[in-house]
Predict the structure.
Amino acid sequence: MAPSMLAIRETFASLVADGVPHNPRHESSQAADDSPLTAHHSQLANTAVSCKGVTKEFGANGTKTLALRGVDVDVSDGQLTLLVGPSGCGKTTLISIVAGLLNPTEGSVEVLGADLAKLSGRGLVEFRAKNIGFVFQQYNLLPALSAAENAAVPLIINGWPRKKAFAKARAMLATVGLSHRADNFPSQLSGGEQQRVAIARALINEPRLLVCDEPTSALDAKSGHTVMELIKQVAVQPGRAVIVVTHDSRVFEFGDRIVEMSDGRISSDQANVAA
Amino acid sequence: MSWIALRMLTGDRSKYLGLIFGVTFATLLMTQQVSIFMGILARTGNQILDVRDADIWVMDNRVRYLDEAPGLQDIDLMRVRGVPGVAWAVRTYRGVVRARLEDGNTRNVRLSGLDDESLVGAPQEMIAGSMDDLNRPDAVIIDRAGYEYMWGPPAASSSQGGDNGGYQLGRTFQLNDKRAVLVGVCKVAQPFFSDPIIYTRYSQAAFYVPRERNLMNYILVKAQDGVDQKELCGRIEERTGRVALTGRQFFWKTVSYFLSSTGIPVNFGITIALGFIVGAAVTGQTLYLFIVESLKQFGALKAMGIPNRGILWMIVLQAVLVGGIGYGMGVGLTAVFFITTGNITHLAGLHMTWVALLGTGAAVVVIVIATSVISARRVLTLEPAVVFRG
């Protein structure tokens, strides 16, 4: 059952107050706004992602495919940006580049003030571990780990002691309304519950950029709605940019901004008045 | 990361057990077969090593292994005794004769004729009877396995003792149509052939063996204190024109003969190779499939910030754990095999050797490294962006 939005906000507020590590940008945003949990429409939004002339080519010689054709796009923090478009339009390629998982063939990508091209391989891995959270279409939870253990994985990767990491993971699961499922394994959870665990996992590290790839496409309408509500209410925070790739028109209402792609280009970019 | 790797590995019980089974099976097969192979080869020369009171064996130049020894002349014994550095030298006979039992059945036996006065080369441990009884007329001593081969297992021993452990001494049978009386049962290292080993005095052996011009076929030599045995062998060869070998050298000469002239190494080699191949295939394939099926998970972990060296560590840790547990279980099962078969007379003396342990350990390390490398390649070359492909 989806938690009420009020409960979610209260749990998240207590998490933040309980000494969860903050990043400086978080703190500055919070200092400037007394009610950070409602600040996703903050006027203090900064540019979290800046893509300029991004081109991506796959294949070689005769089999070259141009997936992105000079994409220029900025993403601000404190907002939920929807990246929409038909299959094959380059959405996934673009977020892969933004997340530092792919290198652009041409163009520059600046994420959270860092030029990704200037980061070494190791530096990029560390940058991702500290600053970027991922929510995948197929959840990609580790089947051998319980929900709480799955949620704790990013902390463990970053060197947290397991006990402390599990404690925080349980709190994070409570935030997404799954405290009663903390000890269940992925195979014992529904698709919607697995995706909520994935969201808890993505947010546990307090990332400044959350990248979600088709988070609702494997879910029924109700579960998809719950997941998007969670992302909107829990993930979107001042100092954090959230990019959701989707072609599920049922979730467009959640976006603060909708960037539409077509054939490797941005075809429209507008604020969502319905949000 | 280690914790994640271990949980990933043990989380899928069937694959985890499959991996361990593969290594266990390979280890069991290799350790057991290598040990048996070494044990059987050692049996070919055990009778040489059983002679602990002499240092050097002198023999005809044409000897290829223990049981194939043409006779020496009595003058050879005198010459050997005259070589500087020789403390003493005694004659001995080793050969095969036919025994006829009380019930008319016949058995081939390996007869050892020991020097009448010194009994050099006599067995070190008696189970029933006494070595001194060899001085009685027609007296022979037989090894335990030989006794069972000729007359069956000993009768149940009484709790009071005094019944020679159930062995029936005083039995009479014929060796080459001459009367022989059993006066004792001894314990010897298991021989290669299942033929009984019978010890008697040299003079008595001459009575049992079909008449030949020269009966003595080995001279057993003790080196004087402080004399280098190999140097002494050289001197004996120089003075007598016969071959002189230390016990250890003669043992390896015999083992080498069986290695080069029989199908034993090929047959065991095939089994050992099959153990390695099957073990490597089962382990390699299971680990590879385990990794390939977990590619998305590894991709997600890479996306979340585990570097390639971390992924490599995870895979190596998984492989090492599987290899370690499988090796331990395989060695344990081999030990259980040898412990449970240790009381079977014809398997006695076969045991797990340190060479088999080390060799199998090395083979398991090769399997683990090879499967790790093959599996890791898929993960290390994996684009983390693969996680975004539904």
Summary: The CA atoms of residues 138 and 273 of chain A lie 30 Å apart.
